[in-house]
Amino acid sequence: MSIDRIHISERGRHELIVLKRRTGLRQWNHLCRWALCVSLADPTTPPDVDLGATGVELTWQTFGGAEADIYEAMFRMRCHRDGVDPADRSRIFHLHLHRGIARLYAVKEVRSMADFIEVARKLCSHG
Fold first, then answer.
1. Distance between CA atoms of residues 49 and 77, nearest Å
2. Tell me, what DSSP letter sits at residue 108?
3. How many angstroms separate the CA atoms of 94 and 119, rounded?
4. Tell me: the pLDDT tens digits for 84-105?
5. CATH number for region 5-125
6. Name one Pfam family in it (predicted).
7. Whole-angstrom distance, CA of residue 53 vs CA of residue 56
8. Are 126 and 37 in contact (CB under 8 A)?
9. Cα–Cα distance measured from residue 62 to residue 46, given in angstroms and rounded to the nearest whole number
């Protein structure tokens, strides 16, 4: 995969901090994995927005962990379906990640890990 480092914007960082507090999850990468899945489940293309300055940086291996190949395959399948130029994959990945983070953050009713899982499952099933 051509994505070695994952950059999370300052806004995304703030949203992840709030999600960590709401869910009790300690690791950025766990939340980011859920966020990617939420966005990939949405059949629409994420809006092409300026993500701004980097607030947090993760390596691909930290992001994906033992399941890195699965996340890569899911993302590549989506890129193929959407006709994404390989040169644009990194940008599209970051747009998906940030859209997913924003969607999870927007659900204010999340007050526990159980709430978070239920919300994420609902968001993932709409696609």
1. 22
2. T
3. 21
4. 999 999 999 999 999 999 999 9
5. 1.10.1220
6. DndE
7. 9
8. no
9. 23
Cα–Cα distance between 60 and 63 in angstroms, integer? 5
Find the angle CA(104)-CA(110)-CA(112) to the nearest 5 degrees: 120
Write the single-letter amino acid at 79.
Answer: C
In the predicted structure, residue 1 carries a pLDDT above the cut 70: no
The alpha-helical segments, DSSP class H, found in the chain are 10-23, 28-41, 60-64, 68-82, 89-106, 113-125
* Residue indicated by tokens 């990468």: 29
For residues 27 and 105, give the distance between their C-alpha atoms in angstroms, rounded to a whole number. 16
* AA letter at 118: E
Domain ranges of the chain: 5-125
Q: What is the pLDDT of residues 41-59, one digit of tens each?
A: 999 999 988 888 888 999 9
Closest listed residue to residue 37, CA positions, set 114, 107, 85, 103: 103
Place of tokens 């007050």: 111
